[in-house]
Amino acid sequence: MLNLFLLQALNGLQFGILLFLVAAGLTLIFGIMDLINLAHGVLYMVGAYLVATLTAYTGDFFLGLALTIPATLLFGIILEVLIFRRLYDRDHLDQVLATFGLILILNEGVQMLWGAAPMSVPIPDVLSGSMPLIGNMRYPLFRVLIIAAGLATALGLYILVSHTRIGMRLRAGATNAPMISALGVDIRRLFMLVFALGAMLAGFAGAMVAPILSVQPGMGDSILILTFVVIVIGGVGSVRGAFVAALLVGLVDTLGRTFGPILLRNLMDPSAASQTGRTLAPMLIYILMAAVLFFRPAGLFPAKGAAQ
């Protein structure tokens, strides 16, 4: 049982890291730009498709990943210039409708370019093995790479946001964007930077997960819902909150799906416990969100200036 718990805890950590990569950019976009971007999950999908295409073209996953990161950054800048900067001054309903329409357009565009059939990305040979944990238990090296890359990205974001001039402007923008604009900061350029950074992080998450999941149209829709849950739990505009909340959601979701049916077997027969556990497991993260909002309506680590 201990081995199973450790294995699922690592899977939950890996899932939480991926959620953080998607949520970090979106929480800055939402917190600084006050923009509801339902199309953020599409950037995750685009990153997966780009790494699949570039890996097949170059024959090397790491080279494909290195090309995908700037490509998603450029894609984010193009979207911001052509579409999103026209939505900043619109109300939230207009933003929801426009970005929902963008989801449909980009999903159809992906199917036109790559087809509807799922694509796969081979795990690099150097990371196709596993590492020992406890006893005979082993854990895939590629999943370890995802965890390490996510933690390194989180550290880099912390340094960027907390210890650089750009980060100072980002924090100020999350607190009072009109004020920093009045002080002479080019708010449009700041918005473009935030959006491009968010697109790059989402694309990086999609690229990293491509070798362990099927790359297919609409793959960003489900993770978008979980991303908004992460933002609500962590606090809008807070990267630290997004990190903690993403790990909580990843662990609760993964451990709940595994151990929920096992625990319920103590109360009911195995078949009923299995069915009930599968039904209740997806609800756990929303129960967690409700509990957090009950005690801390602004989230665990709200950005400075947010209502408590």
How would you explain this protein's 3D organization?
- The protein is mainly α and 308 residues long.
- It has a single domain (2-123, 140-295), classed as ABC transporter involved in vitamin B12 uptake, BtuC, CATH 1.10.3470.
- Helix content is 73%, strand content 2%.
- It has 11 helices and 2 strands, in the order H-H-H-H-E-E-H-H-H-H-H-H-H.
- It has helices at residues 2-33, 40-58, 61-82, 92-114, 141-163, 165-182, 187-209, 219-234, 239-264, 270-280, 284-295; strands at residues 130-132, 138-140.
- The protein has a two-stranded antiparallel ribbon.
- Strand 1 and strand 2 form a beta hairpin.
- The mean pLDDT is 84.
- One of its GO terms (molecular function) is transmembrane transporter activity.
Write the layout of secondary structure elements.
Layout: H1 2-33, H2 40-58, H3 61-82, H4 92-114, E1 130-132, E2 138-140, H5 141-163, H6 165-182, H7 187-209, H8 219-234, H9 239-264, H10 270-280, H11 284-295
Antiparallel strand pairs: 1-2
Q: Can you tag this structure with a few keywords?
A:
single chain; 308 residues; 11 helices
Summarize the structure.
Belongs to the binding-protein-dependent transport system permease family. LivHM subfamily. The protein has helices spanning 2-33, 40-58, 61-82, 92-114, 141-163, 165-182, 187-209, 219-234, 239-264, 270-280, 284-295; strands at 130-132, 138-140.
Task: Summarize model confidence as the mean pLDDT.
Answer: 84
Question: What is the top-level CATH class?
Answer: Mainly Alpha
Strands of the biggest beta sheet: in what spatial order? Answer: 1-2
How many structurally independent domains? 1
Q: What's the tally of helices?
A: 11
Strand composition percent: under 5%
From the alpha carbons, calculate the radius of gyration and give it in angstroms. Answer: 20 Å
What is the element string, with H for helices and E for strands?
A: HHHHEEHHHHHHH
For the largest beta-sheet, the strand count, sense and barrel status come to: 2 strands, antiparallel
Q: Write down the overall geometry.
A: globular
The strand count comes to 2
Poorly predicted sequence stretches spanning 5 or more consecutive residues: none
User: Structural class, judged by helices and strands?
Assistant: mainly alpha
* Named CATH topology: ABC transporter involved in vitamin B12 uptake, BtuC
